[in-house]
């Protein structure tokens, strides 16, 4: 593999022939991102900015710094000394992949070990110059690598103090292979194995414990009862333990949010924190003047923050009048004798627990300065969409409607349709749902947008994600929604850290309101499947155990069956004769506890999966590259009548399926069955 880079002057432009691309790349000093697309570097996978080499014909982009890297075709790397790593300009997997060092997803170049399925993206692979050889340590069962500078690539917590990694670190490459991940701050890795400490204990030295003791599972000794994360110092004689947070705690702390200094109370005692309202069992900080006891971490609580669940800035207070209030995140009682976050807007009674407001799932960790103008923040959601020009308007009384527009995500003008009967096979190119009025359409090509989708804001704050999201278009690339895990074409709200669909309100009927919870595992009432513990779900505000996973919470309230005149309605209960519990599409039995779609006019009942299909959010007629499993492209089709059998499983391909139209193949296959075609 020729990894050299040649540059020449041609027509006054810098030209580069890079080994990863078959065309010449031309240099652009300042690359600007258009509204239609965000371009990523094919080497590092990160967003293109600054000096760039580009092939406009292929939409192929390289940062100048990445294009000029000296990359070897094979690499002997200390993170994986067992085998050589091979450079791949394209992912050896279908779709994206994750780096085994930093755990971040990537779409760029990869150093890959095929036998071990071990992968490093370019930035992590090039850290080897700052890595010291393995050395043994009593803190861990494997030797550790010392990394002087990891370029902020590792976005994980220290296994010792459980705080985010920064600066020089120690890393265990053996644990990375088993997905256990062991990393330490330099200061945590170099702690003494025994200390004498003034913390309410002077009789014996405290002994370092890097992990729980391996006693029998029913052991009731003191060490087995300790609930800790990370490293601790312990005296088993006196039943004393000291966390690393305690070990590093200063005697006094000053903070701009409180006028007096805080003094460490080095005693193991129970207390209720005046700032957050939760209990503590050791080393509080005290303000004797104000008669306050607080956790060390609560001293630095920001006064004003913005969270994903509320549109106003909320403020911390520990002196609200006592009253009965429910937290608007977890819907449990807030004890206003202690600290909480509340909204200062005159017409808003929003209040939340401190631990709910500062959860990483809803807060980005940034404080809002005093005097912040919320009006500029609100304008993000309401003012600007991707309609770039209004060609024609029409007035209806006091309401003015744009009847012909230009939209950034289509080349031609779009015309508004207000009403009329619709064929149920048209798709909105924004949300991929069945098209319904009112909608915009192109007279030159089959492009449709619901009026609501055309007017979606460019930027949006969303309860599913703590960063600002930007509306992008993915009609040619399939993405996986980070919220509901569905495959999608069309519009999506995107963050640099991942994708999130724009679902917000839950329209599913239930006698009580539903609220969003993060990192929650329970059986869904609609499909009865148990969600993964890192997923989100909707729960009942009255805590009646009613739960919906995001896939079921975002089910459309209506669907269509073949070319029937009437729509099917999402139905949550089934009181018909058990002998009638069959799906009219697949003809298999329906479980009476599962939600289904039903038409009262036609008396048709369908499984929700059958009504919506396997690929409800992919564009019918688009081509899919799955050449890891088949040598030709597939076309997404929607089978209505005379549905063909699947090439792999033999079951009928009802609804959406993949089809190879090449004359030598000419077969259909379910999406999940394509993985078995090799």
TrEMBL record:
Q: Which Pfam families match?
A: C1_2 (PF03107)
Keywords for the protein's UniProt record, in alphabetical order: Metal-binding, Repeat, Zinc, Zinc-finger
Q: Which InterPro entries match?
A: C1-like_sf, DC1, PKC_DAG/PE, Vacuole_Formation_Reg, Znf_PHD, Znf_PHD-finger
GO MF, one annotated term: zinc ion binding
Cite the Phorbol-ester/DAG-type domain residue spans from the record: 259-306, 406-461
All residue ranges annotated as the PHD-type domain in the record: 38-105
- Determine the domain of life of the protein's source: Eukaryota
Write the protein's name: Phorbol-ester/DAG-type domain-containing protein
Question: Which species does the entry assign this protein to?
Answer: Gossypium darwinii (Darwin's cotton)
């Amino acid at each position: 593999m020729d990894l050299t880079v040649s540059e020449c002057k041609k027509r006054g432009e810098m030209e580069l022939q890079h080994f990863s691309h078959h065309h010449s790349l031309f240099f652009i000093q300042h690359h600007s991102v258009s509204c239609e697309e965000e371009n990523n570097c094919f080497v590092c996978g990160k967003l293109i900015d600054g000096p760039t080499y580009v092939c406009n014909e292929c939409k192929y982009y390289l940062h100048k710094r990445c294009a000029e890297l000296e990359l070897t075709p094979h690499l002997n790397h200390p993170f994986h000394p067992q085998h050589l790593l091979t450079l791949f300009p394209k992912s050896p997997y279908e779709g994206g992949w994750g780096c085994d060092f930093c755990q971040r997803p990537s779409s760029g170049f990869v150093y890959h070990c095929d036998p071990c399925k071990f992968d490093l993206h370019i930035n992590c692979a090039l850290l080897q110059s700052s890595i010291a050889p393995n050395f043994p340590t009593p803190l861990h069962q494997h030797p550790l690598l010392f990394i002087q500078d990891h370029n902020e690539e590792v976005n994980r917590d220290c296994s010792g103090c459980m705080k985010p990694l920064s600066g020089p670190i120690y890393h265990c490459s053996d644990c990375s292979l088993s997905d256990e991940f062991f990393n330490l701050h330099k200061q945590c890795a170099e702690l003494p194995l025994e200390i004498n400490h003034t913390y309410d204990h002077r009789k014996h030295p405290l002994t370092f414990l890097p992990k729980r003791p391996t006693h029998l599972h029913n052991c009731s000794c003191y060490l087995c009862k300790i609930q800790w994360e990370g490293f601790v110092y312990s005296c088993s004689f006196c039943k004393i333990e000291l966390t690393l947070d305690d070990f590093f705690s200063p005697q006094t702390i000053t903070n701009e949010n409180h006028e007096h200094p805080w003094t460490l109370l080095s005693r193991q005692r129970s207390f209720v924190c005046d700032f957050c309202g939760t209990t503590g069992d050791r080393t509080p900080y005290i303000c004797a003047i104000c008669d306050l006891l607080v956790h060390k971490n609560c001293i630095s609580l920001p006064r004003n923050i913005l969270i994903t669940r509320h549109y106003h800035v909320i403020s911390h207070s520990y002196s609200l009048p006592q009253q009965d209030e429910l937290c608007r995140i977890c819907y449990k009682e807030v004890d206003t004798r202690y600290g909480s976050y509340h909204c200062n807007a005159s017409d808003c009674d929003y209040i939340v627990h401190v631990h709910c407001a500062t959860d990483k799932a809803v807060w980005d960790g940034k404080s809002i300065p005093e005097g912040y103008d919320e009006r500029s923040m609100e304008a993000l959601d309401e003012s600007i969409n991707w309609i770039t020009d209004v060609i024609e308007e029409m007035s209806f009384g006091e309401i003015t409607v744009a009847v012909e527009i230009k939209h950034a995500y289509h080349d031609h003008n779009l015309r508004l349709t207000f009403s009329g009967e619709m064929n149920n096979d048209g798709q909105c190119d924004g949300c991929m749902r069945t098209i319904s009025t009112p909608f915009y359409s192109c007279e030159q090509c089959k492009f449709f947008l619901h009026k609501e989708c055309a007017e979606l804001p460019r930027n949006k704050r969303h309860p599913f994600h703590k960063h600002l999201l930007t509306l992008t278009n993915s009609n040619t690339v399939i993405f996986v929604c980070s919220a509901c895990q569905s495959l999608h074409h069309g519009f999506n709200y995107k963050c640099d850290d991942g994708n999130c669909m724009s679902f917000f309100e839950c329209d599913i009927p239930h006698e009580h309101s539903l609220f969003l919870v993060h990192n929650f595992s329970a059986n869904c009432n609609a499909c009865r499947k148990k969600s993964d513990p890192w997923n989100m779900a909707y729960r009942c505000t009255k805590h009646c155990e009613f739960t919906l996973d995001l896939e079921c919470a975002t089910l459309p309230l209506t669907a269509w069956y073949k070319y029937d005149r009437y729509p099917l309605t999402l139905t949550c209960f089934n009181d018909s004769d058990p002998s009638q519990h069959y799906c009219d599409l697949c003809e298999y039995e329906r479980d009476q506890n599962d939600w289904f779609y039903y038409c009262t006019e036609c008396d048709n009942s369908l499984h929700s999966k059958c009504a919506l299909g396997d690929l409800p959010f992919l564009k019918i007629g688009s081509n899919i590259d799955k050449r890891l499993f088949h040598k030709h492209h597939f076309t997404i089709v929607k089978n209505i009548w005379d549905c063909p059998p699947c090439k792999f499983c033999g079951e009928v391909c009802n609804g959406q399926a993949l089809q190879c139209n090449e004359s030598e193949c000419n077969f259909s296959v379910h999406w999940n069955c394509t993985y078995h075609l090799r």
